[in-house]
Amino acid sequence: MLTSALSVDSGFLVLTRHRATAREKTQFPALANALAPLRVPVYTMIISYKGISPQIASTAFVAAGAQIIGDVHIGAHSSVWFNCVLRADCYYIRIGENTNIQDNTVIHVTQGQFATVLGSYVTVGHSEVLHGCNVKDRCLIGIGAIVLDDVTIGEESFIAAGSLVTPGSMIPPRSMVMGAPAKVRRQVTDQEVARNNEHWQNYVEYKTQYLCEEGRKN
Which residue from 62, 90, 171, 194 has the least number of CB within 10 angstroms? Predict the structure, then answer.
């Protein structure tokens, strides 16, 4: 059973979650209940900065360990997964609808110059760095990719795992991009676009189940 509690501590909005292990519940139920308040918590940090608070849609999901800081907007049915950092302390971050940002990704900006804007239906794989870039709708950014300042990635493009997209790059729509430095290799096929649609749809289902586990039904 997953339990959660929302509190405010020193200006931080904190969501605390913990889960009793199967062994505790079946073999030591009384002990599990007694120790539950003492369990080391995992925090989701929603942090205001310079009077600006993150704006998160009620149907969005932010996983344990994530930190959302400052001028961040997250759209309906989007999800930010475990241990991501979205830090909009010196410019803004915008996340569209039905977009997923997977575990350990870092999103930041360049002061007063390059915001980070992700469109809708975007899949951002695990352990990305997105910095001051613009990613249009229905893109897929592969695991471990780095996308730097003043980059624009056109609609329905794929950035391959491990790619380094250098500052100022303009990626046309439906491009398959690979390498370090990254280059356009070919056009994305209809089958690849369909597969990416499966990715974002899967993550909408995942986030819905996680919200149900927390007692929310969005």
Answer: 194
Query: Across residues 7-25, what is the average pLDDT?
Result: 44
pTM over 0.85: no
Is 198 a domain residue? yes
Per the CB < 8 A criterion, the answer to whether 134 and 149 are in contact is no
- Can you tell me the distance from the alpha carbon of 67 to that of 206, in angstroms, rounded to the nearest whole number? 20
Neighbours of 92 (CB within 10 A): 14
Q: What CATH number is given to the structural domain containing 88?
A: 2.160.10.10
pLDDT of 63 reads: 93
CB 139 within 8 A of CB 155: yes
DSSP assignment letter at 172? P
Residue range(s) defining the domain that contains residue 115:
43-213
Does any domain span residue 100?
A: yes
Query: How many structural domains comprise the chain?
Result: 1
Average pLDDT across the chain, whole number:
85
pLDDT for 138-179, tens place per residue?
999 999 999 999 999 999 999 999 999 999 999 999 999 999
